[in-house]
C-alpha cells in the first residue's frame, strides 16, 4: 500500500488498510490506522499512555483532494489516559490534536491564505472561512511551540493598530532585529501590554535594550517597569504622521476660508490637493507637482505648512547627532509659523524630544513599524468575516511573524 501512502501524503507511521469511494459523501475515503509502534500516545503531549477505550467510533479527517475529488482519512478515534491530561484522543500521525483536517491539508491552507484572495482559497479548497481561521490558529500555534518566538529580543517596537473604524484595537510587538511581528493581542491598555511582558518573562525582558513606540506615556511607563535599563524611543513614523495631520488641519482650514469667501474654484483646488501635499516629493506625479506650484503661488500659509512637514520628515531621516540641532531649529521655526496646528506640534515635539532623539541616534528603522502597521490594516480587511479576533491575530502572525510554511507541501 505504499502507492496509497504516497498518494494520500501520509508517512510510514500510517497504515492504509482500504480505499473506497463513498457515494453519499461523493468522496474517496481511505481507512487508516497508526502503525503499532506509534500507537497509544497522548494527543496533546505525545507521552506514551495507557489505552482507555475505542472512543466514539470512526472519525474522518479531510485530506488533500485526489484529482477533482474530495478525500478523507477514516480511523477509530481511540482514547488514552495521559498521566497529565487525563482521558484524551490518542495521537495520530496524519493530523494535529483536535484537527478535522490532515496536517498536509492545513499546511496547504496556511501557504495559500497569505498568497491568494479569500474567495479563491475558499473555492479552491472547498472550505468555509471559519475553517480557514481555525486552521491558521493551529498552524501558528504549532510553529510557536516549536521555535521560541521571543528568543533573542533586544530591539522591539510596540504599536497599537485600530481597525473596524476605530472600534477595535490590536496591540502589536515587532522585532527590529528580525523584522518580524512577534506578538499581538486585542486591546490597547496597560494590562494588554503587561500580558506581553509576562509572556516574555523576567529573564528575557532584562535583555531588551531598546523599545520604540508612539508617544503614549503609559507604554513608556509599563516598558520601564518591566525592562530595567531599556531606552524608550518614539517611532519617527508616528512623528511624521503628526506632521501629516497638522498639515491636513491647515489645508482644511484654508479650504473652509476659501469656501466661505465664495472662492469656489480655489476651494475645489484645495480640496483636491491632499495627495500632492501628503506624498513624498520624489513620488509626485506631474499633475501633483503642478498642484504644488499652484499652492506655492496661491496660498502662502498652506505652502509654509507643507515645507514644515517636509523638513521635519527629512530631519527624521538624519540618524546622526546633527539631528539634535536640526530638531531644535525646526521647533523654533514651527513656533513662529503663525500656524496653530504647527505651533501645537512644536510643543508636542519638545515634550517628546528625548524619545524622538533616542530613535534617531539609535538608528531605528522607521520602515518596519510602518509596513507592519499597513500590512495588518490590510489583513483586518482580509480577515473580515472571522467572528473571532484570535483568527485575525493568527493570520497576522502567519504572514508577518515568519510562521507561514515555506512550501505548500509537507
Ligand atoms: Zn498528555
**Distinct compounds present:** zinc ion
How much helicity do the residues have? 40-55%
Radius of gyration: 28 Å
SSE string, helices as H and strands as E:
HEEEEEEEHHHEEEHHEHEHHHHHHHHHH
Distance between the termini: 20 Å
Oligomer: single chain
Structure annotation, total helices: 17
The number of distinct β-strands equals 12
User: Can you list the strand order of the major beta sheet?
Assistant: 10-9-8-11-12
Average pLDDT metric: 92
User: How would you describe the shape?
Assistant: elongated
Strand residue percentage: 15-25%
- Low-confidence sequence ranges: none
Going by helix content, strand content and strand pairing, the class is: alpha/beta
Largest sheet: 5 strands, mixed
Amino acid at each position: 500500500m505504499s502507492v496509497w501512502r504516497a498518494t494520500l501524503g501520509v508517512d510510514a507511521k500510517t497504515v492504509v488498510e482500504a480505499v473506497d469511494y463513498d457515494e453519499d459523501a461523493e468522496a474517496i475515503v481511505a481507512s487508516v490506522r497508526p502503525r503499532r509502534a506509534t500507537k497509544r500516545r497522548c494527543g496533546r503531549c505525545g507521552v506514551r499512555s495507557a489505552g482507555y477505550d475505542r472512543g466514539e467510533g470512526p472519525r474522518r479527517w479531510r485530506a488533500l483532494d485526489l484529482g477533482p475529488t474530495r478525500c478523507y482519512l477514516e480511523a477509530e478515534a481511540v482514547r488514552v489516559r495521559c498521566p497529565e491530561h487525563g482521558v484524551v484522543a490518542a495521537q495520530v500521525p496524519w493530523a494535529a490534536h483536535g484537527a478535522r483536517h490532515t496536517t498536509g491539508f492545513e499546511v496547504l491552507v496556511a501557504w495559500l491564505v497569505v498568497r491568494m484572495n479569500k474567495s479563491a482559497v475558499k473555492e479552491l479548497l472547498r472550505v468555509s472561512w471559519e475553517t480557514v481561521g481555525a486552521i491558521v490558529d493551529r498552524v501558528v500555534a504549532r510553529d510557536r511551540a516549536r521555535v521560541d518566538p521571543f528568543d533573542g529580543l533586544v530591539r522591539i517596537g510596540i504599536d497599537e493598530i485600530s481597525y473596524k473604524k476605530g472600534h477595535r484595537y490590536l496591540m502589536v510587538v515587532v522585532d527590529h532585529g528580525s523584522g518580524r511581528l512577534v506578538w499581538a493581542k486585542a486591546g490597547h491598555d496597560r494590562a494588554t501590554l503587561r500580558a506581553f511582558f509576562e509572556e516574555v518573562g523576567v529573564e528575557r525582558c532584562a535583555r531588551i535594550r531598546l523599545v520604540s513606540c508612539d508617544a503614549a506615556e503609559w507604554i513608556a511607563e509599563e516598558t520601564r517597569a518591566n525592562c530595567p535599563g531599556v531606552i524608550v524611543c518614539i517611532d519617527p513614523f508616528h512623528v511624521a504622521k503628526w506632521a501629516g495631520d497638522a498639515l491636513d488641519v491647515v489645508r482644511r482650514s484654508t479650504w473652509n476660508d476659501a469656501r466661505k469667501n465664495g472662492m469656489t474654484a480655489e476651494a475645489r483646488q484645495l480640496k483636491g490637493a491632499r495627495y500632492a501635499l501628503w506624498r513624498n516629493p520624489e513620488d509626485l506625479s506631474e499633475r501633483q507637482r503642478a498642484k504644488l506650484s499652484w499652492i506655492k503661488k496661491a496660498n502662502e500659509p498652506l505652502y509654509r505648512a507643507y515645507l514644515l512637514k517636509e523638513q521635519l520628515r527629512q530631519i527624521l531621516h538624519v540618524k546622526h547627532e546633527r539631528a539634535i540641532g536640526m530638531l531644535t531649529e525646526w521647533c523654533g521655526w514651527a513656533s513662529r509659523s503663525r500656524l496653530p496646528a504647527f505651533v501645537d506640534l512644536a510643543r508636542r515635539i519638545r515634550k517628546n524630544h528625548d524619545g524622538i532623539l533616542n530613535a534617531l541616534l539609535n538608528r531605528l528603522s522607521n520602515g518596519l513599524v510602518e509596513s507592519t502597521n499597513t500590512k495588518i490594516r490590510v489583513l483586518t480587511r482580509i480577515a473580515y468575516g472571522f467572528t473571532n479576533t484570535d483568527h485575525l491575530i493568527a493570520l497576522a502572525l502567519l504572514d508577518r511573524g515568519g510562521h507561514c510554511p515555506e512550501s505548500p507541501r509537507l
